[in-house]
Amino acid sequence: MMQTFRTEGNYRSADRLSPAELRAAIASREILQSTALAFDTQRQLRFDLGGVKAVMPFGQCADGAESGTVRDIAVLTRVGRPTCFVIEGMKTGENGQPCYLLSRAEAQRMCKAEYLDTLQPGDILPCTVTHIEPFGAFCDVGCGISALLPIDCMSVSRISSTADRVSVGQQILCAIKNRDVQGRFVLTIRELLGTWEENAAGFTVGETVVGIVRSVEEYGTFVEIAPNLAGLAETCPDLHPGQAVSVYIKNILPDKMKIKLVIVNHSLGQSHRFDLRYFITEGHIDHWLYSTPESRKRIETDFAVAACNPV
């Protein structure tokens, strides 16, 4: 059976598999998962697989743990969370009882060699947001392997906070932008969220819609009405970024890539975050052009250049 690589939390659970099923998983090198129950004083994660104890020594908790590049905090925070692994075998544990030996590091090495290392800039892959920072979101791209989605790659519309776009635990689609100097993926999502034309097609002059204030300038207020689309309304000094408002669409100008708005309700009294709407969901992108044909302003991404000139 060909192995399918997924983000952590999306593998077959080993908790209720029979001894015969677990032996088959050992033989086939299938990646399974279970919830880590403890990180003990011997610096190993402990599990329970169908009533049988299982341990994951520190060096097997992540690729790089044996060489000292993985800190204890990265391992002990797995406690209480689904953790993927391959079963390396069995040993006789305390009181002569059998004990499974698990390796997350081997699952990650398999994921890298057979899946991630075959991908190129422009390839689209599923990810899970694991934690967020002011500069971006860290995402699981397979077996707990982390990649960065920078905040400026989350949309064409400017956002002030990573939490404006994604949340921890959210499953999203990303494209590979490039690799950093350490060979880790840098991700982008804005190219999947539609061009100016694709987003503007969902709106009509004369309707009133929900918007989110993104910035307040002397010459006007930028209000996002979709993750990759913002318009300009009048100056409103009492507004602040992240505030939800309702706006009347006064005009849509494809040649200038501008949408003119009038703020109707200055405060909806509740927070709002747009759901991600993907216009591309699989495959590969070589080149992406956000701009309209009539516009002199070009907003684009050339993934082919990144593929030919890796960092």
Describe the structure.
The two termini are 35 Å apart. The chain has helices at residues 19-28, 72-76, 104-114, 196-200, 303-308; strands at 12-13, 32-35, 38-39, 44-49, 52-57, 82-92, 98-103, 124-133, 136-140, 146-150, 171-179, 185-188, 208-217, 220-226, 229-233, 244-253, 258-265, 287-289, 300-302. It has five helices and 19 strands. A hairpin with a 2-residue loop joins strand 8 (124-133) and strand 9 (136-140). A seven-stranded mixed sheet has the order 1-2-6-7-5-4-3. Strands 10-9-8-11-12 form a five-stranded antiparallel sheet. A five-stranded antiparallel sheet has the order 15-14-13-16-17. By secondary structure, the protein is mainly beta. Belongs to the bacterial ribosomal protein bS1 family.
Strand and helix layout:
Elements: E1 12-13, H1 19-28, E2 32-35, E3 38-39, E4 44-49, E5 52-57, H2 72-76, E6 82-92, E7 98-103, H3 104-114, E8 124-133, E9 136-140, E10 146-150, E11 171-179, E12 185-188, H4 196-200, E13 208-217, E14 220-226, E15 229-233, E16 244-253, E17 258-265, E18 287-289, E19 300-302, H5 303-308
Task: Give the structure's gist in a few sentences.
Residues 122-190, 206-232 form the S1 motif domain. Belongs to the bacterial ribosomal protein bS1 family. This protein is 12% helix and 37% strand.
Structural class: mainly beta
How many distinct beta strands?
19
In quaternary terms, these chains amount to: single chain
| Helix share, percent | 10-25%
Apparent shape? elongated
Q: Strand share of the residues?
A: 35-45%
Order of helices and strands: EHEEEEHEEHEEEEEHEEEEEEEH
